[in-house]
Design the sequence.
């Protein structure tokens, strides 16, 4: 029998990598004859958590293979902008990527190459080798509507988005204000902007787009994508909604983990969980406002705190960061953890009834799967747009009040946490997310929408 390989080429950032690995696991589970090969480029940023994660996956699922591409010299004049750098590194690796695909092809039939949008530079290489080439969009259908519509916005507006104080009407999503677009796409002269436009155009020409969401969660966005409304200058490729793809439960021993032991002693649905992702770092002033708001709210809470800048490189005690006496005053109601907690397990715990989140898509899906309503507190990238979808369209979150520079007062924290856990608006959100949680479970059943979509995708590979 011929050897068959699916090549996955993620961005090395942990949020993108985890989703791509989950896709690899899903393919391997249902098609064990496919070899799953994940290409890893050296990250242009600190990635200790990535290295640890790869070692863990390799040890537990040896059938998923990671191929580390060799380190190459990075030109000193390459942009230091985080987003531009993420696009530029794969461009430098194209000759190596080409040789890697050729070497794989000599031993196995490559059934699909699946790119992250940051590895867009590899699209031309894969197509030149006449390989079926897909994009895995790690966000949801609503975000994909905006992404694919960006070339249209580029064509119909001469000004940069940042210079327009308007709402954009984009098929499939609520109106999006110019201030809610990611910083990387608001300046036509910016280094990252053209990369995003080129990526959207390549996605439209690809063999298909895979999205980490499910039909029942984003019905209007899915319909707009399927009707071809988001790509105005040509056909829309097949789009497969196969989520939620969520990392497993971190293999945490509930009897050993401090968070879980504490949660075991709390009443059902009584705890609000605050966690802001791997890059969610606040200044001391903001941390103190959160602390004051939580204390005033009188809600039970579990809060993950990272060291604030400019001290993030050195370990600080919680007493150095938080208001004097806060930990002792709230000891009967709250627990504060430094740096990391097993988020999927915590969200799935019976005691957790609310989640204050940065609106990263992986965290959103984990909350939806667990049926935990959210307070939306976006920080960067596409998270401001995610808040719009979650609050206005899916109605599974409440928006925290923020100043124009993103600052949130203690009063805003207090009011929104209380509303989520006890209020009438919160009740509507709590009921809605339980419905979405049931839909998520149904989507991933054997005959559910996400499984049907997944097999449409992979059956096209087996038929080749």
Sequence:
């Amino acid at each position: 029998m011929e050897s068959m390989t699916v090549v996955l080429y993620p961005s090395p950032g942990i949020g993108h990598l985890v989703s791509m690995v989950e896709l690899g696991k899903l393919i391997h589970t249902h098609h064990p004859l496919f070899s799953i090969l994940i290409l890893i480029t050296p990250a242009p940023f600190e990635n200790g958590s990535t290295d640890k994660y790869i070692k863990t996956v390799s040890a537990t699922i040896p059938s998923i293979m990671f191929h580390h591409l060799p380190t190459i010299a990075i030109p000193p004049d390459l942009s230091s902008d985080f987003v531009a750098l993420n696009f530029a590194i794969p461009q430098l690796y194209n000759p190596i990527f080409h040789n890697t695909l050729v070497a794989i092809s000599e031993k196995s039939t490559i059934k699909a190459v699946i790119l992250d949008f940051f590895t867009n530079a590899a699209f031309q290489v894969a197509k030149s080798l006449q390989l079926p080439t897909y994009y895995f969009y790690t966000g949801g259908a609503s975000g994909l509507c905006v992404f694919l519509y960006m070339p249209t916005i580029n064509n119909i507006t001469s000004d940069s988005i940042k210079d327009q104080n308007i709402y954009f009407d984009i098929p499939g999503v609520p109106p999006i204000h110019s201030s809610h677009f990611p910083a990387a796409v608001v300046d036509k002269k910016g280094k990252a902007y053209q990369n995003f436009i080129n990526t959207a155009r390549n996605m439209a020409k690809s063999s298909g787009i895979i999205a980490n969401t499910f039909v029942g969660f984003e019905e209007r966005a899915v319909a707009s994508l399927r009707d071809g409304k988001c790509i105005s200058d040509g056909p829309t490729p097949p789009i497969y909604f196969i989520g939620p793809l969520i990392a497993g439960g971190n293999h945490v021993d509930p009897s050993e983990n401090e968070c879980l032991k504490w949660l075991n002693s709390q009443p059902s649905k009584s705890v609000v969980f605050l966690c802001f992702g791997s890059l969610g770092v606040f200044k001391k002033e903001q941390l103190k406002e959160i602390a004051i708001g939580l204390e005033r709210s009188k809600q039970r809470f579990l809060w993950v705190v990272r060291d604030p800048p400019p001290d993030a490189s050195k370990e600080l005690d919680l007493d150095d960061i938080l208001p004097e006496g806060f930990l002792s005053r709230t000891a009967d109601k709250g627990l504060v953890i430094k740096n990391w907690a097993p988020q999927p397990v915590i969200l799935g715990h019976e005691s957790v009834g609310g989640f204050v989140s940065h609106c990263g898509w992986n965290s959103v899906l984990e909350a939806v799967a667990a049926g935990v309503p959210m307070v939306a507190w976006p920080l960067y990238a596409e998270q401001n747009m995610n808040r719009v979808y979650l609050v206005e369209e899916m109605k599974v979150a409440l928006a925290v009040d923020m100043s124009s520079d993103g600052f949130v007062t203690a009063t805003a924290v207090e009011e929104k946490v209380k509303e989520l856990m006890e209020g009438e608006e919160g009740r509507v959100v709590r009921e809605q997310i339980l419905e979405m949680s049931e839909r998520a479970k149904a989507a991933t059943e054997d005959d559910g929408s996400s499984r049907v979509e997944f097999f449409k995708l992979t059956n096209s590979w087996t038929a080749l």
Notes: The CA atoms of residues 307 and 316 lie 7 Å apart. The two ends are 14 Å apart (CA to CA).
